[in-house]
Design brief:
Blueprint: H1 3-30, H2 34-57, H3 64-67, H4 75-108
Helix pairs in contact: 2-4
Transmembrane segments: 6-25, 37-57, 77-101
Keywords: Membrane, Transmembrane, Transmembrane helix
């Protein structure tokens, strides 16, 4: 095991530690104000509902070239990826519309 491997494993540990701290610290801080935690839960539930709607309308069609080795894509995997893509598209469009609305609202005021 050379230096690159050690540093690579160290970076994995630091990324994991950073992710845990990024998730736990706001949760600990929100215990002082439970209403802020409720808003977070409502947002997460909304995104999960949006994903299940996108998952249900996405197709499970797999082209023959993606069924073979190196991809080994199954119809369930294809539908999952399609649901994630549709969710991403909807959230991106929502973000862009929100930005335009906010800027127009600021310009009017």
């Amino acid at each position: 095991m050379d230096t690159y491997d050690i540093l690579l494993y160290g970076s994995y540990v630091l990324i994991g530690l950073g992710a845990v701290v990024a998730i736990l610290m706001p949760l600990i801080k929100s215990l002082d104000n439970p209403k802020s935690l409720l808003k977070t839960v409502v947002g997460i539930v909304g995104i999960v509902i949006l994903f299940f709607i996108a998952y249900s309308i996405s197709s499970n069609e797999v082209l023959p070239k993606f069924e073979a080795d190196p991809f080994n894509l199954t119809p369930a995997g294809s539908q999952l990826v399609g649901g994630m893509l549709i969710t991403t598209y909807i959230l991106a469009i929502f973000a862009l519309v929100s930005i335009v609305f906010t800027e127009l609202n600021k310009a009017i005021k």
